[in-house]
Amino acid sequence: ILANPDTAPPPRPALPPLRDVIARHGLSASKALGQNFLLDGQLLDRIARVPGPLAGERVYEVGPGPGGLTRALLGAGAQVVAVERDDRCLPALAELGDAFPDRLRVIAGDALAIDEAAEAGTGAHIVANLPYNVGTALLVRWLTAPVWPPFWASLTLMFQKEVAERIVAKTDDDAYGRLAILAQWRAKATLAFTVHRSAFVPPPKVMSAVVHLVPAPQPAGVAIGTIEALTAAAFGQRRKMLRQSLKAMPGALDALAVVGIDPARRAETLSVDEFVAVARAIDRARAAG
Ligand code: SAM
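Above: inputs. Below: predicted complex with S-adenosylmethionine.
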């Protein structure tokens, strides 16, 4: 079978083993920066396949480190903009840029402090293996973007497995809560695969998993703030009936009645659509004065 020349990635240049790159540039993993590097080329290629074919696509990578995942993304034919906070990694990334001329732009800085929509441009796929605290903060930021559909076409993010499960959890799961509702309101969220802790150098204490999200169309008339306040109140007392947990939130109990949800139910039994319907009823009642 002949590869389609429009979508097939270009031939890959020969690159030195990642272990050599790390040793040559003295990139001992920094705990403070949450550095756990991936060196297995097959695993890195597998992560780079999660967003779909990348030939000719733009990718925004957060935290490239020594560039293992960056190699896989470039090898798949992507045009990559990468932001890295650790200046020690910049010479290794510059070498990688030389091997893929005009395909890699590296920004030295903090991903939490830059305007990534302007840097990456509309339609970029976001791919990252990040320290978990930074990853969750960025995920929430990307999901709560005020403009929808957002600038990103998809998110492919490595998380602690327990956090990944909270993102994709369904009604009645122990992991079902605020993060699941935010993620599944705004996106179609799937757990792509789990990654054993031994795949990282150094290995973290827990297992990891790659999560894939693509933006979902938004039902009109629901404010992010209302969803957040509603789920905070409901899951603040997740074992209590809604009539108790939502008592203090103005308009919430009336909205349950409007939507036809039994106030004797508990938060974890409500689907994402039901939360959205309650939030919409609260907003409508407020707008009506
Ligand atoms: N992508 C590489 C890999 O898969 O082997 C490195 C992953 S390592 C878990 C996380 C990387 O994110 C490190 O290179 C670290 O320096 C970088 N980093 C941590 N916090 C960051 C931030 N706020 N902004 C940009 N990069 C950050």
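Residues 33-38, 62-65, 68-69, 83-86, 89, 110-112, 129-131, 134 surround S-adenosylmethionine (CB under 6 Å).
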